[in-house]
Design brief:
38% of the residues are buried. This protein is globular. The chain is built from five helices and 14 strands. Strand 12, helix 5 and strand 13 form a beta-alpha-beta unit. Strands 1, 2, 3, 4, 5, 8, 10, 11, 12, 13 and 14 form an eleven-stranded mixed sheet that branches. The chain has a three-stranded mixed sheet with strand order 7-6-9, with no helix packed on it. It has 229 residues and is α/β, with parallel strands linked by helices.
Length: 229
């Protein structure tokens, strides 16, 4: 089998690919950590309104190093900036926006995704996120739930599986997966392959996936910019 480490996408490339599918004018919540990178790669000409669970809507880009105002942070405790239209509100109001179905997209990381769309992205194990947190509300309330993730674990085990063995964040909630090897939709209880890295054969990709991959509309090449900051 081909050496995956030589051809897989970087986190920046995965984030870039996910950003291309966000519609102009969408209200979007990005999970803590890796998913936050998506905000850095919005296509020109599109306006995306980012929401953070600690009570900010429509915030701007990260400030330059040394210019942070630590009273302005997102849910991941990273510094943000204001821009015209930025609004601030109570934490409870923020969750009312989430639970009220006002977010168009939620983009999160994952430990496991099942073929029916179940998501596991928290763990009580060593080094794991200690609680399910607001992700539970996001995945059941956002109009579209996407995952950005490496295709396999550091141990080489599939993250895309028939059924999750880790604690669930949400049930049948994921609609699209942007992995380091492919773009995959969840439809009718199955993984449907939309795009894959050209250097990887379908059979090799299937061998790295813990559930059957279907192809219903053809498979496009997964192409991202080579160098991303």
């Amino acid at each position: 089998m081909i050496d995956i480490s030589e051809i897989k996408l970087s986190n920046a490339q995965i984030a870039w690919r996910a950003a291309q599918d966000i519609q102009d004018g969408a209200y979007v919540n990005l999970g803590i950590g890796f998913p936050e990178m998506v905000a850095s790669y919005q296509p020109e000409g599109k306006e995306v309104i980012f929401h953070t669970e600690n009570g900010v809507l429509g915030f701007g880009a990260a400030p330059a190093v040394g210019e942070e105002d630590w009273d302005l942070i997102n849910a991941g405790k990273k510094a943000i900036t204001q821009k015209p239209g930025t609004s601030f509100f109570h934490h409870a109001d923020s969750f009312a926006m989430v639970r009220g179905g006002h977010l168009d997209v939620a983009i999160l990381g994952a430990y496991q995704i099942a073929q029916n769309g179940d998501l596991a992205n928290w763990s009580t194990g060593k080094g794991g996120i200690p609680a399910v947190g607001g992700a539970m509300d996001l995945v059941q309330s956002a109009k579209r739930v996407a995952v950005v993730t490496d295709h396999i674990t550091k141990k080489g085990e599939p993250k895309l599986v028939e059924s999750c063995t880790m604690p669930l964040t949400g049930v049948a909630c994921v609609t699209r997966i942007y992995s380091s090897l492919a773009v995959i939709d969840v439809e009718d209880g199955h993984f449907v392959l939309r795009e894959k890295i050209a250097a990887l054969s379908f059979d090799d990709l299937q061998a790295l996936t813990g559930a059957e991959l279907l192809t219903t509309k053809g498979v496009d090449a997964l192409i991202c910019p080579e160098a991303l900051a």
